[in-house]
Structure formats: C-alpha cells, structure tokens
Predict the 3D structure of the following.
Amino acid sequence: MWNTKRYDIIVVGAGPAGSTFARIAASKGLSVLLLERKTRIGVPVRCGEGVIDSGLRLFYEPCPEWIATTIDKFCFIAPNGSSIAVKLQEKGYILNRNVFDSDLAKFAEKEGATVVTNANVNSLLFENDKVAGVKGICNNEPFEITSKLVIGADGVESRIGRFAGINTKINLNNIDSGYQKTISGIDVDRNVCSFYISNELAPGGYIWIFPKGNDSANIGIGISGKAHINGKSAKTRLDEFLDSKYPKHKVESISVGGIPLSKPIKQMVTDSVMLIGDAARTVNPLSGGGIILGMKSAVKAADVAVKILISDKEPTKINLIDYQKQWMNSEGKQINRIYRIKTAVDKLTDKDLNNIIERVNKLPVEKRSLARIFRACIPQKPSLLFDVAKVFVGY
Amino acid sequence: MIEVDKGDCDFCGACVAVCPVDCIELFEKDIKIDSKKCTECKLCIYICPIEAMSYVEHETV
C-alpha cells in the first residue's frame, strides 16, 4: 500500500513542476511519492496555458494532444484601442493543460513514482523537531507517511513552506487576482495572442486573449491585489469586457487563481524541504508565465536532491542550499531584473501607453523588429519596453 | 468575521497565499477559516478574484 511505505522523497502537488521533479528523481532510482489534492490531475485548469516552443522542448518533446493552437504573433492593444502586432521569432503554443499535466504525472509514474490523487496534505510530520514526512487525508482516511525529503510543489498557496517555517506570504502588491473564462462562439484569430494593456481595464496587469482553436479562447484578466481594495474585482472587470466585446459568447469553463508576481522567494529550502514552481515564486513577474520556469526550478532542485540522497548524505538546509544558489545565479537573477522592469511598467499611465503604441504605428511595418519598435517608443528609456517585449515573448 | 460563499468559491487558494496568519485551510471542494486565528485584515477579500469572500460584523447574541 502506498501509505504504509517509507519513501526517499514525497512531492506535494502534481503540476508541471511537481511531476517533472518526481520523474527525474524516480528515474535515478529513488523512491518517490507524488501526492495531488485534486481528484483528477490538471482539472480544473488554473492557467492561461501559453508556452514557447523552445522552452517546452528543454523538458519534453511536444505531444500533439497537448497543443490547442500554435501562436506566431502577439498583438498589444493600447487603452485607446489602437494596436501593434509583433511577429514572434519562434512559435508558441496554447496548451491543453489538463492533458499536459496528466501526461507529465504519467511520465513520472512510468519512471517508478507512486502517484496518488485526492490526497490533501494538511501538515508536516516531525520527528525530533525535524521534518520527517507529511500528514493528510485521502478519501476521508487520514494518512501519515515518512520520507527523507519533502518537496513543496503545491502552488501559489503553498502551505508546505509555511509548515516548515519558511515565510511564503505574499504582499498584495506582488500577487495578481486572476480570473479567466474559456469561451466559444467567438471570432478569434487562432494564431495570435492578444494583450490589452490598460490601467482602466486591468490595473497592475492585463487582459489576455489566448486562442484555443476553432471558435474558442481563454480570455482572462490579472489585476493587482491592491486594485480591488477600492475598485472592481477581477470577475466584474472581465465580465464587463466580455459583455462589451463578445456579447454572444458561450462560457465553457471558468478558471480562478492568484498569480504570484514577486521577486524570487528569499528561502527556497530548509532542513528536509525544498520549494519549487509557483510555491517558490518561479514566475515571470511581468507576464505571469510560470510553466517553463516552474519546470526549470524542478530540474535544478531534482539534480541537487538526487546527488545528496544517492550519496547517503542528510538533506539538511546546508546541503540543499546549492539549489537556491544555482537558481539565484540564473533564473532568479533574471526574475529580479524583470521585477524591476515591472515596477517601471506599473508606473506608465494610460496616456503613456497610448503614446507608445501610436509612435510604433508610425514605423513602417517591414521595419517593425522588436528592437526598432521599442527604440522608437521611448527615446529617453530605449531599453525599457524592449526588455518588456523580450521577457513577454521569451518566457 | 470573514465569510466565504461556498457556492461562489472556486477553491483556488489566492486567499491562502496572502493570509498573514495562515488561518485558511483549503480542500478540493471546501474551505475553512479558523476564526480564532483570523485577524480580519481583509486581504483575502481583496485578492479573491470572484468576490466570494465578505466581511460581516460580529453578531451580538
């Protein structure tokens, strides 16, 4: 029985980060238990589902069933309605996250990981004040399972980190309230992702339209947590947008969630615990994209964890800290840089945004390379929006 | 106290991420707020994308 065994590693959360970690650790011969709170892995989807081809290929050969549409163009729409289209240098995809997540967990299972759904972890198990596993409830039955190492891949709401004494609380400035509807019966270009950048529509965030093939799309909004204090909620704002833009749409599903848009978390590991993915805030704080970054964190964490456990060393904080160091020297550094860009972008008014798009539209189409566009838009700060576009497209 | 409309709530956990005192526990189809731990700071109300959380004055019995 899965709940009577002792494991090398328990991974909490079967999203892309958790399943990728579990797959790697299991493939190296470690015993791995992957626990998922939901009944079905990947359902409900809580994501815009956009990834870039080269990012996905770092980890997996894209499978046709994962891909709803292929994207070759981004379109940014200013507050006054004028827009610019930017051709992508490489293709992107809108995924079917339900299929993708479920397949990634199966890959982990194939490598030998035990995957259990409907398993709600509600505390850590301590022995002599040290983390020694997890406690929870599965199908109304309580369980207690021991392991050498616990991986918190439990998303934005991560409680594993908190249980282990890591401060994972997010300030309202650094989290967006996300609300998305997958709708059908609309006229939408299946190869273009559109972004409405406007403080009036989406303060501290944006509205996205990600096509899902045929006549359907994921249309969602992220607004700063602060914006709702004296203003409308994400739901109200998106519903108003949809009613005015697509009055005849049919709602297929609704997806809700907090989007962490913060600097890297200060502490990614402690004794016998590592955090990966959204739980470790491995998210691009400007675009909110986190699928590829989450999997990158999983690979880095798994490499460190496997080395330690295979050589029979204790997974102490000091031994696990290599993962955090590696992260902060690579993607973590990049996330810090993007966070600074986000802070600058947040200060742009709707008038600034209109001016920028207007200036770009004066450029002849054939000269609209990203570099040229963004050099043209802000003469005094030529790099700012170039950086914005790069991080938007690149992650 | 903070109340959750469980008919509206999608159990996404955005409130759990911002709660400063970790008083919200999430299940697949349920959510519980420990009113003894809750400081009524209302951050959960602000972050909730679907207005499922609200503040109600304490009832005096």
Q: What stands out?
A: Residues 154 and 311 of chain A are 27 Å apart (CA to CA).
